[in-house]
Design brief:
20% strand; globular; Ribosomal Protein S5, domain 2; disordered N terminus; alpha+beta; Rossmann fold; disordered C terminus; 21 helices; Heat Shock Protein 90
């Protein structure tokens, strides 16, 4: 079919913009050097927001970590300088400065300007490396406004400068030295990172502390000197390695261990090494962190699978052998034996196979057997040699099993009850008429009074209202059997339609916006936190998929001459008062949602065209898990420390 014959109809449909009159070699664009990185930065660092900004630091630090893995680096120093300039210094061998014959340039220049150039592609530079794709340093160079490297090597300090990936100066010796190592200094490019150039000390702190735990004896120093009057310096070095890591996890969350010392196992087979530390605590949640070549595998992988399978087998085989599990007893499930478990799994191997650029999941199938056999043999031996510890851990697993069976019976009872009722939805739910979940939203509202206003003021087609009353169960302190059947929580589960925990099915979700609407006071904040804890622990995909929102009702109504304006903070109130002249104003402070009538609640908080809502997201699920444990757990001291440390981020409420 001739193109010209079909061009006119496309133009008539307004689609001519998308039609090229020719497609030949001239249309093929070739991006030279690091131009591709600047063109599509998200392909290399995930995003150009805060997460991608911090990833620049990780890429450089990971190269120094690789030097430590190779046995040549003992100290890494990271500093945030004024202007958010980053420096990373290590005392490793230094990036090679001799001429690379293939490129005709110094090796360090090649490493920093050529993608997929480095000592991790089949050479003997590194046997184990987290830098699978080998694009780290060159990508950071490409995405930096300027980038400088200093290499101490062969009795000299060599310096070179780049700007946006381009070479500005040649590699030149600038001083003499007997030391070795690499210093990299860079400033992220404002043209790329348009959202922010501000580094968060706590984000870098978590990552670097983690790396110090994973590499026993490696010293890492983090300094924030952006404010000359309050320079912050943290030093991390853990001779205990993974054992120190799991002990820290329990301690930082305020959890009580069930045994005095972490269990630590290590196994080496050829060029493979597997190391695991585990410690049980009194919580009802599991916390497993897995790593491959020091890269956190947030989606698990073959090493985590081997660990979980072996752990379950050990418990059941040991329980049968020593009569803890009777013939009539069912086997313990994986969930049973992992309740209250903190574990760190770390494997090191050559040719690590990660799934995807983000390295979130390990794919090497042979590592499953190494981890599995190590855990089975060594944990079984430990239990046999330490029966008192085994009994304490088994007691918790058996309690978990009984609670899980009680939860199953409660589910069955709830199903039979629903089947007998003509309408299985909660009686207090005012549902919407539109049944397409993509169009609908549900407001979970604190109190019957506010619920009444919300029902009267809502858009009945797309907005459902579910009032809640009183404080609900803190699920951080309860097992699943206590959650199922709870009169405050089950109406939420029933209204959403998804089920919870292992029976959760996102495809059955009845609303694609779940809005928590509570008073702007301490009680309202508590209810929001209890609900968020429940969603995080038992309906986590709702958060992962961006379905949870927090309504933002106003704090004030400012009236002048029958004109009403609303303020959502003290600062906004003052600005409005100033703009209205500051006299003749009637200022109403809303103590709760119940003080608003239906019209006010609609126009300030529920009208999709005018409302403001906060979307609940998880940038770091591990950090979120830790925060929920601290804030909602039993221990007071960790909660007090957390609040005192983070008080500066909390807006003062006029209550």
């Amino acid at each position: 079919m001739d193109f010209e014959e079909n061009k006119k109809p496309l133009e008539e449909e307004g689609l001519d913009t998308f039609v090229s009159e020719k497609y030949d070699a001239s249309q093929i664009q070739v991006l030279e050097g690091l131009e591709a990185v600047r063109k599509r930065p998200g392909m290399y660092i995930g995003s150009t927001g805060p997460k991608g900004l911090h990833h620049l630091v990780y890429e450089i630090v990971d190269n120094s970590i690789d030097e430590a893995l190779a046995g040549f680096c003992t100290h890494i120093e990271v500093e945030i300088l004024p202007g958010n300039v980053i420096t990373v210094r290590d005392n490793g061998r230094g990036i090679p400065t001799d001429i690379n014959e293939q490129q005709g340039l110094p090796a360090v220049t090649v490493v920093l300007t050529v993608l997929h150039a480095g000592g991790k592609f089949g050479g003997s530079g590194y046997k184990v490396s987290g830098g699978l794709h080998g694009v780290g340093s060159s990508v950071v160079n490409a995405l930096s406004e300027w980038f400088e490297v200093e290499v101490s090597q062969n009795g000299h300090v060599y310096h070179q400068r780049f700007e946006r990936g381009d070479i500005v100066t040649d590699l030149t010796p600038i001083a003499d030295t007997e030391e070795t190592g690499t210093l990299i200094r860079f400033k992220a490019d404002y043209e790329i990172f348009t959202e922010t150039l501000e580094y968060e000390f706590e984000v870098l702190q978590r990552r670097l502390r983690e790396q110090a735990f994973l590499n026993a004896g490696l010293a890492i120093t983090l300094t924030d000197s952006r404010d000359s009057e309050t320079i912050i310096e943290e030093h991390y070095c853990y001779e205990g390695g993974l054992s120190s890591f799991v002990a820290y996890i329990n301690e930082s969350r305020g959890l009580t261990p069930l045994h005095e010392e972490p269990l630590h196992f290590i196994s080496v087979s050829g060029d493979r090494c597997a190391e695991v530390a585990i410690m049980y605590n009194d919580s009802y949640n599991e916390n497993i962190l897995s790593f491959a070549n020091n890269v956190r595998t947030t989606d698990g992988g073959t090493h985590e699978t081997g660990f979980k399978n072996a752990l379950t087998r050990v418990f059941n085989d040991y329980g049968r052998k020593y009569g803890i599990l009777k013939d009539a007893d069912k086997n313990l499930s994986g969930d049973d034996v992992r309740e209250g478990l903190s574990a760190v799994i770390s494997v090191k191997l050559t040719d690590a196979q990660f799934e995807g650029q983000t390295k979130a999941k390990l794919g090497n199938t042979d590592i499953t057997g190494l981890v599995s056999s190590m855990i089975y043999d060594k944990l079984m031996t430990y239990f046999e040699e330490n029966p008192s510890v085994a009994r304490a851990i088994f007691s918790k697993a058996l309690d978990a099993s009984r609670a899980r069976e009680a939860a199953r019976k409660a589910r069955d009872l709830a199903r039979r009850k629903s089947a007998l009722e003509s309408n299985s939805l909660p009686g207090k739910l005012a549902d919407c008429t539109d049944k397409n979940p993509e169009n609908t939203e549900i407001y979970i509202v604190e109190g019957d009074s506010a619920g009444g206003s919300a029902k009267a003021g809502r858009d009945r087609a797309i907005q459902a209202i579910l009032p809640l009353w009183g404080k609900m169960l803190n699920v951080e302190k309860a097992r699943l059997d206590k959650v199922i059947g709870n009169e405050k929580l089950m109406p939420v589960v029933t209204a959403l339609g998804t089920g919870l925990d292992e029976e959760f099915d996102l495809n059955r979700l009845r609303y694609h916006k779940i809005v928590i609407m509570a008073d702007a006071d301490v009680d309202g904040a508590h209810i929001r936190t209890l609900l968020l804890t429940f969603f995080f622990r038992y309906m986590r995909p709702l958060i992962d998929n961006g379905y949870i929102y927090i309504a933002q009702p106003p704090l004030y109504r400012i009236t002048k001459a029958k004109k009403h304006l609303y303020a959502y903070s003290d600062e906004e109130r003052d600005e409005i008062m100033e703009s209205l002249g500051g006299v003749g104003l009637d200022i109403q402070r809303y103590k709760g949602l119940g003080e608003m009538d239906a019209e006010q609640l609609w126009e300030t908080t529920m009208d999709p065209a005018r409302r403001t809502m906060l979307k609940v997201t998880l940038d770091d699920a591990i950090q979120a898990d830790e925060t929920f444990s601290i804030l909602m757990g039993d221990k007071v001291e960790p909660r007090r420390d957390f609040i005192e440390k983070n008080a500066k981020y909390v807006q003062n409420l006029d209550i």
